[in-house]
Amino acid sequence: MENTEIKQEIAAAPEHAAPPKFKAPKKKRKWVKRLIILAVIAALIVFLLSRCMSAGTQIVAGTYLTNVAEVRDMTVSVSGTGPIEPLHTYKATTLVSGEVLEAPFEEGQVVNKGDLLFRIDAKDAENSIQQLELTLRSAQLTLNDLLKTQSDNQKDRNIKSGADGVITKLYVEQGDMVTVGTLVADVLDRDRMKLTVPFHAADAAAFYVGQTASVAVDGTAETMSGTVDSIAATDEVGPGGTLVRQVTILVSNPGALSETSRGTASIGNSACASGSAFTYAASKQITAKASGELGTLSVKEGDRVSDGQVIGVIDETDMATQIENARIQVENAQLSLKNAQDRLEDYSITSTITGTVIEKNVDVGDNVGGSSASGTSASYMAVIYDMSALTFDINVSDLDINKIQVGQKVEITADALDGESFTGVVDKVNINGATQGGFTNYPVTVLVDGTPEALKPGMNISAKIIVEHVGNVLTIPVDAVTRGNEVLVAGPGCLDENGAVVNPSAIETRQITLGRNDETYIEVLDGLEEGDVVLTQNQASSFFGMMG
Q1: Closest Cα partner for 132 from 341, 410, 350, 274?
Q2: Structure pTM?
Q3: How do beta strands 98-102 and 367-369 pair?
Q4: What is the mean pLDDT of residues 103-120?
Q5: For the residues of 303-316, what is the DSSP string, one character each?
Q6: From CA 18, how far away is CA 21, in angstroms rounded?
Q7: N or C: more exposed end of the chain, with fewer CB within 10 A?
């Protein structure tokens, strides 16, 4: 519709009107516009470069921390922590069971060494001791009986010769088992002969042993001198009804006499009533009078023995075993009795130290057994602290333990006592170290000076053992030293006026000679001078730089 109206207006316009005239716009020069754009970009690049260079300088400067080598008064020390403890602690326990009859003390009370803490009912233990005493008495009686029997049998175990003579035959060997009546040996005395002949009783009544007699051997004209060996005690009827008495005469054997030889004898003016055969002076068979192993046989055939000589001994193995067993029974009974008597002392529990009662977990009427009161969770019947002195242990590494000596001064602080400090001395250096994770620590015991009331058992403390006062020496931080005793030193042009690193290429690596050290600083003996600036890597800066 709009277009139609326009067309109508144009049509209605007079034909003689002239068309309007338009001015063409002027053309701008393109090189001016481009110049402006380049100028803006250049300015932006300059701005960004300056910012980057500033940031780079800041990054380089923040990569290192600076420290000045300076002379300071250094004290070498070794530090550690540990809980405060009383000088001595006694925790009362019991190995016996029973009812507590006495407990004459209370918590907070001071008790002396040896004071009674608890007395436990020992009725069962006392009854046991009485029974063991009876057992010991019975065992001792058994042993005594066996020893008496052994003594009585000793003569039977000794095999003796019953006569003087020669061992003509042995029937046993050493080590053989024999019984009562076993034939052991024959003994024969051929060097002397006996002649037993009857004399008229009236004549014999006047004879006596040892009297000289004359002996005639039948069939020979030989006579021998002999002695009266024995005279019969009674008379007997002889030939023709006469009373005679047997008289035995002992003579030496010239060598020809035997038991087949016969003879007669006369004593004084009296002649025998009849003759008889000679017999050997001794012809005995030795037999065993006990049973057992023939442990000893000291003769052999042909050996000469005397009457009563011991030629062997029978071992009484069974008797010896019985006696040994009886001795063991006596020793066991004695040991059991002693143990029971020793345990009786356990029913009275006394304090092993002088100190203050910190805990009392058992009272009269409680039943105890093992190491605690029955029906309670207490580990100890009582706990006593000797607070006459305070002590604590700290762990010292194997790198520092050789620096520690008994008597060194110790500076002490407590976490719970801000601003307060105490002193002590090294009391003991324990060489029994404990190794964990490749590191070995040794316990060092420190004795606190005095008895500070502010320090309580269980408080955690920090201790510094003063090893040595070095004096004024040139030092740098321990962290500034790297492997091989090397340090980074700021050379000329390395630092700006604020001490920040601006030229890393001017950093020198220098090897130095080190001396003693404390926890923070280390002594420099050679390689640095006072005022030299050493650098350490700023780990935090490096980390954030990497993150950026």
Answers
A1: 341
A2: 0.51
A3: antiparallel
A4: 95
A5: -EE-TT-EEEEEE-
A6: 9
A7: N
